[in-house]
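Complex record, two chains
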Amino acid sequence: MSTQITRGCRTRRLGTARGVLPRVALVVLCAVGIVSAPGEGVVLDPRTIQSETLHNGLRVVVCEDAAARVAAVNVIVRAGSADDPPDRPGTAHLLEHVLWASGGKDDPRLRIERVGGVMNAGTLRDFTRFHATVPSRDLRLAVEALGDVVLRADFDEGIVAREQSIVLEEAAARSDDPRAALNDLAFEAVYGSVHPYGRPIHGNLDEIARVDPAKLALFHSIWYVPNNMAVIVAGDAPFEAVRAVVTSVFGALPPAAVPERAWPTPTRPPPGGERVVEMPLDKAYVMAAYVGPSISEPDEGCASDLLATLLAHGPIARLNSELREERELAAAVGVDFLTQRDRALFGVWAVCEPEDIPAVEDAIRAEMRSLQTDPLPGPEFATAKCLLSAGYAFANETPTDRATTVGFYEAIHSYRAASYYLSRVRALTRFDLLRIMPWYAGDPVWVVLRPEGDLR
Amino acid sequence: MIRALLLVPAALLLLGSSLDAAPAQRITLPNGLRVIVEPNWSTDIVAIELLLDVSAADEPAEKSGLRYLVQRLLLRGTKEESGQSMGRRLAAVGGVVDATVGLDYVEIYALVPAEGFEVALELLAAAACDPAFAPEEVRRQKVDAQELARAAREEPFQETYLAFREGLYGDHPYGRATLGMPSTLSSITRDDIVSFYREHYVARRAVLAICGGVGKGRVLRAARDLFGEWRSGAAALDRAGAVSALQCSVLVARERPLRRTHLILGFLAPAADESEYYAVHVLDSILGGGAGARLPRKLREELGLVYHVSSFYPTLAADSHFGIYAATEAEHLETVKRALLVLLTDLASDPVPEEELERAKHYLLGSYALSHQRMKDQAYSLAWYETLGLGDNFEDRYKASVGAVTPGQVQETAQSLLRRFVLAVTMPTV
């Protein structure tokens, strides 16, 4: 859930008031979510969330928290890189850049920053989001500024050209990061050219250069329509006030038919085989890539989050004990799994010495096999549930977090999934885990980044 | 008009803080441990921060990374319980824990749902007061630490930042890698670890800050029970020593197998709460704070040369640094460098327009508030500002002082900073 593609220039590497310290981040897994106490607590209590569909189809969702003093606003457009025209990968992401960075005389970003707020945007495979957090009395200003960004209809050729080069810089920076490169390669290997998840979010050099202002305008006119969008507000903002301001900014937009998505269902199990790429690296990066559940398979998705926790989260992580502590084969292990509209990548990865690749692959295979057959000890299962629940709470601590989570679910399914997530986790049994394991039986696609010049 | 302008930043102070937060309470236990509690009933989450005044200056240069190794080992078992068992007990209540090092301090922190608070505090106390340093764990953590120290240097920002600090600080402890180097880490013995721990990990050097959904009574009771017996020890000495001013501008260049060139250009800058501290923060925001700041406007939007550009000014106990970080194509290095120097010279020669100054201050205060919304961040700030001796009203002082910075002060600060610079570059191997 946390893997947003956000632009770096607004992410300051070092906080204004913090020391510079190499901190080991609290790993909140793929699991989307929050939770509150493992006992009775509620995160994103459905009783605090109100929603409405405006007459033009725009969805409005409000998670009110009168104690918050800030309002976090997300404008969601249900069009991501998976909706790029097949011959123009990167269109959705470039459009997000151009909308965000067009500025103009009364730059919306400056309006937000002048009241002490922050603003950003990001593109994923399923959707694009534009978001701002401001003091709650500036709710109107934030919705208007985001409206000005999202509804801009003129695309300046010079700005498009500049953003094309910036997108390429962004893609280059991403390819210098082996973990990101491994994830991109896994998507390509698992979904191939058949399913749109296989295309890179950024597109590539030649393809991006072929996206001109007219192509952007066309994409914008097709997907940026009110019945394909949602506005989410979390924080100190009463529902009536939000509805009024959202109606004044977006209410006059006419709805329009949105194209049907005709994607082939990703095959399960995936095609098998191995994809190896050489990079200038010191270590090897290995991933067992599977196809996991979609948001329409929520119980399976939740069980897969639990599996990810068991494999790679905290002191109970099986791969951690096996690969790092006992055998000292891997420098790092993890699972990439982000629920999506369609069936999502479930990638079990490790970082190791190139000569240890076969041993690491064997260990991952053995661990996945043992989870298929051996009963899981009760305490281990209970602890995994507890970690997953608490992780959901930690990941939804602030209004900004909650708007992100609710917006995420509203984009790919319904905001309600955010509220039900915790009760789904609590209801999981060991049987649910056994039931999900066939998804991860059989051979995965092995995706490997190897140090250059290091032949197996 | 003037009044209206002054009121706006004051209103921003509210941003991020919750109506349910109670004021922080401070007590000092008989052994010298300072405890700060800030209950917040709007959340079920509790953040526990144990921060010790153990700085890079406390470790010998040839054993750099010693603090990091000790920190890792704290979580690997006590005399009574294995690290794995401790970790499992914390996980069973949904808690997470970690231990890290900064230039000026070491910290252990935990995040836990409120009902697991006592379990988390007990484990954290055991880790801090009673670590076993089992020989097998020492061996294993040395291997791991060397690996991570190597890996950190493959990360382009970290590598460039270390080169920048080496150029800026020379032999001063701030010029060293906080994680140590593989060579220094491998020379560290268990005896080094045990004696370092005995000397430095004592109650009088520590601040325990707790924020979130627990009451003061519950916290103080647990803190007295669990930390009351901790060795008192001696308070930290002022040992970092003065940083020598640069005699000339310095270029530090390195090659790595990367696609982009990463650079940091920057200067020595005031320590926490010195007279120009707030003006540098405002200058930092004018240059790098948000999309409206000068760096992204010039380098990203006008010249289209970079995807990422940012500036930073960490709060440190001794002389800090102000830096600008950018990643670009190798052929644009010279253009980017020149553009940065022009931007900096402009700040020194012309006063900042009033409207731009206001945007920068609002952005600074807004992002300060937003970055203190999480219980973890609040607990960290309380502990760190207490350690720096900035007292219990630092946040108010910060906000008022930032609000009072004038265009003239920004200009003077720019002039005094900009005399000599360090440019650190990590470039693709040819």
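Note: Residues 1-40 of chain A have pLDDT under 50 and may be disordered.
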